[in-house]
Amino acid sequence: MLKSNVNLNHNTILVTGAAGFIGSNLVKRLYADMQGIAVIGLDNMNDYYDVHLKEYRLAQLVQYPNFVFVKGNIADKQLIEEVFTEYKPQVVVNLAAQAGVRYSIIAPDAYIESNLIGFFNILEACRNHPVEHLVYASSSSVYGSNKKVPYSTDDKVDNPVSLYAATKKSNELLAHAYSKLYSIPSTGLRFFTVYGPAGRPDMAYFGFTNKLRRGETIQIFNYGKCKRDFTYVDDIVEGVVRVMQHAPEKVNGEDGLPIPPYAVYNIGNNSPENLMDFVDILQQELIYAGLLPENYDFESHKELVPMQPGDVPVTYADTSALERDFGFKPSTSLREGLRKFAQWYKAFYIDNAEG
């Protein structure tokens, strides 16, 4: 296991995308575990999905001492420069990005602005205001049409099948260049299908729940012959916090030249689930939570359809490097994670409305 070389206690940490699904959970975890920290949370609060959900997450964060919220876009270079100049973060976690494979076909401009220009601005700020560690979100989408499973960070990933995937691979390339040129310690994290309470409504489990509750038909892509490495959000956050505390070392190679302080890891469950099994467990947990009646006619509310453009049939993470270096492997079962989601959904959408 790698030894910690970044002490987060009494540090200032910048988290972009702080009102997002992973970002908000990360901020809560940092305040629970670390002492004397100040977190600068940046988010543009866009309406890609229900802003009320982002406001709900943010409301939980503003209660913490020394939490500062900055509403803005990472594509705004002047704003990023001002944030780094004023707050001088020692650790930066860049989670702000335009997410979603299918939406990248509809609105490509949003991906270029946030995922490329925005990330470039973060790198430039880390260059001009040296940080101890830059951690940033990549995605399992970078594996594209790779046939070999499980996906390893040693695999060649030059075949993206969506613009979203291409922007995330570009982030890794840009980070490598900046690590090499300016010795910026950076670690990219390829997340695999993150789910959980207060998640993104554009994700399948959330959309399925909304439609089943309304008595609508859900579409199951690739005729149900998909496998996904579903990863519970707490497992993702655990991995991020561990990685934050070890920046890649600045060392020289055999030729005497500096080796880029750069690393990439998968964070996934290392246990892909068949989409039909996933939908079946979700249905059971929605019934268990009282969100669907026990006699719900599930068969009449599902439709098997072809694969969507940009999607892949399987995602499957090789997490051996994460286990080796950080002693951690995600372990939350799909049933446990979906049960927590269903309980949250009932409390947020049903109980609150009735109250």
What's the gist of this structure?
With 355 residues, this protein is of the alpha/beta class. The chain is 41% helix and 16% strand. 43% of the residues are buried.
* CATH homologous superfamily identity of the domain at 12-192 and 233-269 and 316-331: NAD(P)-binding Rossmann-like Domain
Q: What can be said about the biggest beta sheet?
A: 7 strands, parallel
Number of strands: 15
CATH fold name of the domain at 12-192 and 233-269 and 316-331: Rossmann fold
| Low-confidence parts | none
Keywords: NAD
Protein name: NAD-dependent epimerase/dehydratase family protein
Domain NAD-dependent epimerase/dehydratase: 13-254
InterPro entries: Epimerase_deHydtase, NAD(P)-bd_dom_sf
Write the layout of secondary structure elements.
Layout: E1 12-16, H1 21-33, E2 38-43, H2 51-61, E3 67-71, H3 77-87, E4 91-94, H4 103-106, H5 108-128, E5 133-139, H6 163-182, E6 186-191, E7 194-195, H7 204-213, E8 218-220, E9 227-228, E10 231-232, H8 233-244, E11 251-252, E12 258-259, E13 262-267, E14 273-274, H9 275-288, E15 302-304, H10 320-326, H11 334-354
Parallel strand pairs: 1-2, 1-4, 2-3, 4-5, 5-6, 6-13, 7-10, 8-15
Antiparallel strand pairs: 9-14, 11-12
Helix pairs in contact: 1-2, 1-8, 3-5, 5-6, 9-11
